[in-house]
Design a protein that fits this description.
This protein is mainly alpha-helical and 165 residues long. The protein is built from 7 helices and 2 strands; from the N terminus they run αββαααααα. The chain has a two-stranded antiparallel sheet. α4 packs across α5 (122-129) and α6 packs antiparallel against α7. The chain is globular and about 45 Å long. The relative contact order is 0.20.
Length: 165
């Protein structure tokens, strides 16, 4: 349990309690954006345009660190999303099963862990894209998860389009 608390703290979160409760608002030093998984932003209406905006913004704000933001790193995140997506497609219900909801929560923990491992590369990406708040808002909604997975695909596509290594 203490290991996970350390991961959350390293990723810039404070106030982690048992059960990995929501973090307090924290400024991301690399982007100046607020990290708050309960912002309520959700998936943007035009997620394709937002994905392009996120990637072009990161190219500017990250400077030389952008070259370290490789396609492999972003595709690892997409791979986790795609594994869950395949399970979601198998279910016919509009609400996600507790097992899939658990997988989505684990995805969030993995994102926070990756932010801690790569604070100059992954953390600005997760923050700018609003991934933690979007994952929080998925809840048990099949539709929201499918929209989230499409948003992730758009982020990967624009990263590659704009010269991601």
């Amino acid at each position: 349990m203490n290991d996970m608390k350390d991961v959350f703290r390293k990723a810039g979160y404070k106030g982690i309690k048992a059960g990995f409760a929501a973090a307090s608002v924290q400024s991301a030093p690399d982007t100046g954006k607020l990290l708050n998984p309960q912002q309520g932003e959700g998936i943007p209406q035009d997620y394709v345009a937002r994905a392009e905006q996120v990637i072009t913004g990161l190219r500017k704000t990250m400077g030389n660190n952008y070259k370290n933001f490789t396609t492999t790193k972003i595709r690892n995140i997409l791979s986790m999303v795609n594994q869950i997506y395949n399970d979601v497609l198998m279910e016919q219900s509009e609400t996600l099963s507790p097992d899939i909801q658990s997988q989505i929560k684990y995805l969030k923990v993995r994102l926070v862990y990756e932010c801690g491992r790569e604070p100059r590369v992954i953390k600005p990406f997760v923050s700018e894209a609003g991934l933690l708040s979007i994952i929080t808002e998925i809840g048990d909604s099949r539709k929201k998860f499918i929209e989230f997975s499409r948003y992730m695909e758009a982020l990967v596509a624009y990263h590659r389009f704009y010269g991601g290594e």
